[in-house]
Design a protein that fits this description.
- There is one protein chain.
- α4 (191-206) packs parallel to α9 (321-355) and α7 (264-281) packs antiparallel against α8.
- The chain is of the alpha+beta class.
- β9 (161-172) and β10 (175-185) form a beta hairpin.
- The chain is built from nine helices and ten strands.
- Strands 1-10-9-4-5-6-7 form a seven-stranded antiparallel beta sheet. Strands 2-3-8 form a three-stranded antiparallel beta sheet, with no helix packed on it.
- It has helices at 2-29, 100-104, 151-155, 191-206, 216-246, 251-262, 264-281, 287-303, 321-355; strands at 40-48, 54-59, 64-69, 75-78, 84-89, 92-96, 126-130, 134-137, 161-172, 175-185.
């Protein structure tokens, strides 16, 4: 029976991994290539001259800019060769199919091949891409795209540095505008400390599996594992919601749409951990198996998938990077610890069953 349960766990885990990999492709194809963390902090300092109703901000840990236009007039974003690139106004968001920026800005790396009709000198050919008044795009002027840090960072990587001030030109009718911003290097945290804390914590949680399941201490240990999974699962739901909000999702509908299209497995992992934790708290049959499986998914899809924040100073969430690291540590501690404890309890039950004489 135990072997059958473990075999089913392996099949479910393999199916989940395959589904996650398959689900990741469409998200990346739609430009959702925000980094899990970075050491370059981009900020918008303002629009000059200011226009009431026109706002710009940095989203996705600096990966994209977001412009919202409530002025009632169309505003154009100017491309890299001085050509019209985007037009945002009351009638929606349009991109110029002749602008090279239309294609270069589709990915964070800016490596999209240009079609033959991408000519900045050609008259604009506008194509509607959204019905709203908000545009979001990668802009190489606000990014550091080199593979190595700037010279001043290499000379003193432990200090914060201003990499450059950047600008993105706009046009309101015939009036020129400018988005101003800064790009700074922020020293990354000590990843070893976060990994050490996570390892100590997961070992402590895993030790709960050493208590005999039939003893009162074992019953309390199972309840504690369940409570930890409920907390870890709830936090695992909050984290992808935060990423969607940071990516510009607005309202409940916008957040749900982003979760279902790009972070469905992160959401399901959190909900599954909550359900498995509640199942364990209620001491239902096969709770050890549920704890082990839910813990493994939580550790993999919420912990390991976001562990880059341990070594990065800027996280793609609307709260501080320190809070993001604590949340990821919770995923790893709860997930790996619950998996270890569940496996230990399953192994002990298997041995007890093998030693029980057959009538």
């Amino acid at each position: 029976m135990i072997r059958t349960a473990l075999a089913r766990a392996g099949l479910i885990a393999a199916a989940a991994c395959a589904a996650t990999l398959l689900g990741a492709a469409p998200a990346a194809a739609h430009g959702a290539d925000a980094p899990d963390g970075t050491d370059y902090r981009a900020r918008v300092t303002g629009v000059t001259p200011a226009r009431p109703g026109l706002t710009v901000r940095v989203i996705e840990a600096g990966a994209r800019l977001e412009l919202t236009n409530h002025t009632g007039r169309a505003v154009e974003v100017i491309g890299y060769s001085g050509e019209p690139y985007l037009r945002i106004g009351p009638d929606g968001v349009f991109e110029n199919t002749h602008s090279p920026a239309t294609y270069l800005n589709r990915t964070l790396a800016g490596d999209t091949a240009l079609p033959v009709d991408a000519d900045p000198a050609a008259p604009p050919s506008w194509r509607r891409v959204d019905d709203g008044t908000t545009a979001r795009w990668h802009d190489q002027r606000a990014l550091w795209r080199e593979s190595t840090p700037p010279a001043q960072v290499r000379a003193a990587p432990e200090s914060e540095h201003r990499v450059r001030d950047w600008t993105v030109p706009l046009r309101d009718g015939t009036d020129p505008l400018t988005i101003g911003g800064t790009l700074d290097w922020v020293p990354p945290p000590d990843a070893y400390t976060w990994w050490a804390v996570s390892i100590v914590g997961l070992l402590a949680v895993g030790a709960l599996g050493l208590f005999a399941a039939a003893a009162p201490a074992g019953t309390r240990a199972l309840a504690a594992l369940g409570a930890l999974l409920v907390v870890g699962g709830a936090v695992a739901v909050v984290y992808p919601v935060g990423r969607e909000i940071d990516a510009g999702a607005q309202g409940v509908g916008g957040v749900l749409s982003g979760l279902l299209s790009g972070q469905i497995w992160s959401l399901l992992t959190g909900l599954g951990a909550v359900a498995a934790g509640w199942y364990a708290v209620r001491r239902r049959p096969a709770a050890d198996f549920a704890v082990a499986l839910a813990g493994a998914c939580l550790a993999l899809f919420a912990g390991v998938a976001n562990a880059a924040v341990f070594a990065r100073s800027v996280a793609p969430v609307p709260w501080s990077p320190g809070v993001a690291r604590v949340m990821v540590a919770v995923f790893l501690i709860t997930g790996v610890g619950a998996t270890a404890a569940g496996v230990l309890r399953l192994h002990a039950a298997s041995r007890a069953a093998a030693l029980t004489p057959t009538p």
